Amino acid sequence: GPPFYYINGHFETILPSMFRNVKGVNYEREQIETADHDFLNIDWLKKGNNKLLVISHGLEGGSDRHYAMGLAKLFHRNGWDVAAWNNRSCNGEMNRQKILYHHAASYDLSTVIDHVEASHSYENISLVGISMGGGQTLRYLGEEEKHSLPEQLRKAVVFSAPVSLIESAKTLDLKENKVYEQRFLKKLKVKIRAKAKQFPEIDIEGLDEMSTLRAFDNKYSGPLHGFKDAKAFYEFCDPYPFVEKISKEVLILNALNDPLLVGKCFPYELASNSPNIYLETPKRGGHVGFERLGKEFTYAEERTLQFLS
Fold first, then answer.
1. Would the pTM of this model clear 0.70, i.e. be above it?
2. Most buried in the list 76, 112, 193, 302, measured by CB within 10 Å?
């Protein structure tokens, strides 16, 4: 079980993200071009294995976050190559285009997978998405009419995933979740300032006073990506409608004490009606926590390896 001092879901969420340190992961970076003349950075661990794990990170994260590096280390040790891609503007230099990234940026995941398929000969490509990356992964898998999935693509795992983004976004309005909202907001404000240097027409007046993620999404994330406001943005980005269209085997692993997940983020009915959607909702784990006392890898990381193997 989790360490005894993890009193609740908040502790299970915050402590690992502050103190967990995964050593010995030395990625090799590859930069690839996107169709719209931007670029993506993929961080690789390669040993000529015939299996590849593609890792999609969470909001304001990157391949350098503890959860990505934990997965990379565990899988690499068990005979997998690893490609941890970074969303535009994450974990490195600012991207070129006026857009950043969002929960529905499955088009970038698609670019990564197409690149991998074209340049390597893996027999098995499996996906893992964490939090926002889980939403991107579900959407990518459910969009088959838009792009055909590679034959080698076997299975996927998503954990701490906002399966219903519309409901998950509302949890940030709760007083007890202010800490997460403010952490995201602080990082996003830095990004928008950098973006406004590239594109001076982006208005950053009043940015300092902005105190909620919804206000930020209303003024920036929504309009920059072509949406009227935050509400339209969340509705578009919601992965929920795509889940029932998924034909690959997928494990959704969402902890019941995750402070950012509610309602249809635990899609029991959908999973029970689908032969290939597996849903596990452990009581504990927090948001991207799942730590276990004295163990190097988290429950989510071990379970991901088990499911994908």
1. yes
2. 112
